[in-house]
């Protein structure tokens, strides 16, 4: 007494997109047994033969898993069965919404930035050795983490964490993140909801990760330089040869002096901490390293 065939069929496939983004699907299998007295228990237990089971991931949506399986004899033959599997992206919930397990998802955001160096760290210059104007642009991707959880009230730290970066090294979903690599990009708090007479709000915290950190990097350039005869004073920079004032900012060396014969590789970038630094471990799924 066993299942000899289990295969998906076209008929009966369906799906829906419900409340709060919950997606539901149904898939159908035709199953053949080799004994007319085989019952639904035999069919449902034949996982090794290809019969679906609770917990199976839906083939078209990795966030959906099988929540129930139903076997029905086709009637025209004691050997043939129709097995329907229901899938859902809805997480198992607790009696109290405040006890629901936080959900952490990962994605990517893409933007463009000027390309100053190529992948061999050589300056991107025209045939005369000057930077292109406008500069060549390149695609850059950042990792995005979304943490969704339920809270009894609006987070008390909401305003102080606005556009903040992590002050210490952390683990997000067990992924290591160094100091200032994470930035709280967006925080969404739902209207008041209720389950089992318990009121709550759903909080969505979106964090952008930057492998180069969120410290600002700015080209050191200007129209004035430190006066070598009196470092407390500044003097106007002039062009070499004609003593005229430059029409574009001149590159500086990081100490306030004009760079002679500047190149892309001799350019100096200054870094600044422009975002507040806070403890990110107030968010579920984040712990200190």
H and E order: EEHEEEEEEEEEEEEEEEEEEE
Residue stretches low in confidence (pLDDT < 50, at least 5 long) are none
The number of strands is 21
- Alpha-carbon Rg, integer: 31 Å
Helix content: under 10%
- What percentage of amino acids are in beta strands? over 45%
Class inferred from helices and paired strands: mainly beta
Tell me about the largest β-sheet: 5 strands, antiparallel
Average pLDDT, to the nearest integer? 88
Terminus-to-terminus distance = 54 Å
Q: Give, in spatial order, the strands making up the sheet with the most strands.
A: 1-2-5-4-3
From the spread of the alpha carbons, the general shape counts as elongated
Instruction: Tell me the number of helical segments per DSSP (H or I, 4 or more residues long).
Output: 1
Notes on the structure:
The protein has 289 residues and is an all-beta fold. It has three domains: 3-88, no CATH class; 97-215 and 274-288, no CATH class; 217-272, no CATH class. It contains one helix and 21 strands. The strands form seven sheets. A five-stranded antiparallel beta sheet has the order 1-2-5-4-3. Strands 6, 7, 11, 12 and 13 form a five-stranded antiparallel beta sheet that branches. Strand 9 and strand 10 form a beta hairpin. The radius of gyration is 31 Å and the shape is elongated.
Helices and strands in order:
Layout: E1 3-17, E2 23-33, H1 40-44, E3 57-58, E4 61-73, E5 80-88, E6 103-114, E7 137-151, E8 165-166, E9 170-172, E10 175-177, E11 182-189, E12 193-195, E13 198-209, E14 216-219, E15 221-222, E16 224-227, E17 230-236, E18 250-251, E19 269-272, E20 277-278, E21 286-288
Parallel strand pairs: 8-20
Antiparallel strand pairs: 1-2, 2-5, 3-4, 4-5, 6-7, 7-13, 9-10, 9-21, 11-13, 12-13, 14-19, 15-18, 16-17
């Amino acid at each position: 007494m066993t299942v000899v065939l289990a295969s998906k069929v076209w008929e009966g496939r369906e799906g829906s997109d419900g409340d709060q983004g919950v997606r539901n699907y149904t898939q159908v299998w035709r199953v053949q047994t080799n004994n007319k007295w085989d019952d639904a228990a035999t069919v449902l237990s034949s996982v090794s033969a290809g019969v679906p089971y609770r917990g199976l991931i839906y083939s078209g949506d990795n966030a959906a898993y099988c929540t129930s399986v139903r076997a029905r004899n086709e009637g025209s033959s004691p050997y043939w069965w129709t097995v329907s599997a229901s899938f859902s992206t809805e997480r198992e919930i607790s009696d109290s919404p405040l006890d629901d397990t936080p959900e952490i998802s990962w994605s990517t955001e893409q933007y463009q930035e000027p390309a100053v160096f190529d992948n061999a760290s050589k300056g991107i210059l025209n045939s005369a050795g000057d930077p292109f104007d406008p500069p060549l642009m390149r695609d850059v991707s950042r990792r995005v983490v979304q943490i969704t959880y339920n809270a009894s009230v609006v987070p008390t730290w909401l305003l102080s964490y606005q556009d903040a970066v992590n002050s210490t090294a952390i683990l997000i979903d067990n992924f290591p993140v160094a100091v200032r690599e994470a930035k709280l990009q967006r925080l969404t708090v739902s209207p008041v909801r209720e389950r089992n007479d318990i009121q709550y709000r759903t909080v969505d915290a979106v964090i952008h990760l930057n492998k180069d950190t969120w410290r600002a990097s700015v080209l050191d350039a200007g129209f004035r330089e430190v006066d070598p005869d009196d470092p407390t004073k500044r003097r106007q920079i002039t062009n070499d040869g004609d003593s005229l004032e430059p029409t574009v900012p001149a590159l500086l060396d990081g100490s306030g002096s004009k760079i002679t014969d500047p190149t892309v590789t001799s350019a100096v970038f200054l870094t600044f901490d422009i975002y507040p630094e806070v403890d990110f471990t107030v968010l579920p799924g984040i712990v200190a390293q």
